[in-house]
Amino acid sequence: MAWVESIQKAINFIEENLLEEMTIEQISKQANASAFHFQRTFTLLTNISIGEYVRRRRLTLAAQELITTSCKVIDVAYKYGYDTPEAFTKAFRRQHGIVPSEARKFVGKLTFYERLVIQVTLKGAEPMKFNIVERDSIRVIGKKREFSLLNEENLKGIPKMWDEVNSDGTCRFLAKSNNGQIKGILGVCVDNRDANSNQAMDYWVATEHIGETPEGYECLEIPASKWVIFEVRGAMPDAMQSAWKQIFSEWFPTSGYQHAGTPEFEMYTDDDPTSPDCYSELWIPIK
């Protein structure tokens, strides 16, 4: 359970520094993880982003301060990271449904979010089908885009990228170019440690390909690794999201394995993505 304890350590760091400016890199270091992998794990376990958790907790503490002290609203706004009273009021209303002055007069109800405590529930009700294999390096071709991890820009940008490659013919070309062992279109996540002080990631829409790289496409060599491959069945994107959550909340805490930190990918077949029988896979490098 050391893995769970490391996540909790990062959450404790957030709580201890709520009045300070924090970067995703500073937070992820507490869990001994890269910014990308910590962000992914946190969101899967909690159903909210790190940024949203910080906002909720700050606005919870701000509301408590307004109703228990005589501090000026402008001072509370600055204390919890808002540059103007207007920005504070807008964020406060979004969470609590009322403005700060109404909270002070006890008008309306407030929405409080308590400090997170990570607990792993070992259900085992939904069986997970997986196998572990070792493979030499995997060569893929595809389209690459860099996404910032700041403000969870990657979470917003990757779905838009998929919309583009599905509509501009990229996925059709990649499907025709597939000649490797892995039969499908891949969504590859690469932790970009050397760019922007570990504040970025590369995302590839790709396919395994042996031979020359076609014009207009790039090539990526995924390192040799031991892989755990999970079967995923169900309509997209819900089935894939559910699989990720089950893996991080149930499989990793009890498997004895850790994420190896090298690229991971989702593999999509040509099945109907809306079908309850749609088949796909998750490939995660482990150590």
UniProtKB/TrEMBL annotation:
Keywords: DNA-binding, Transcription, Transcription regulation. InterPro entries: AraC_E-bd, Cass2, Homeodomain-like_sf, HTH_AraC, MarA-like, Reg_factor_effector_dom_sf, Tscrpt_reg_AraC-type_HTH. Residues 21-104 form the HTH araC/xylS-type domain. SMART domains: AraC_E_bind, HTH_ARAC. Residues 128-287 form the AraC effector-binding domain. It comes from the Bacteria. This is AraC family transcriptional regulator.
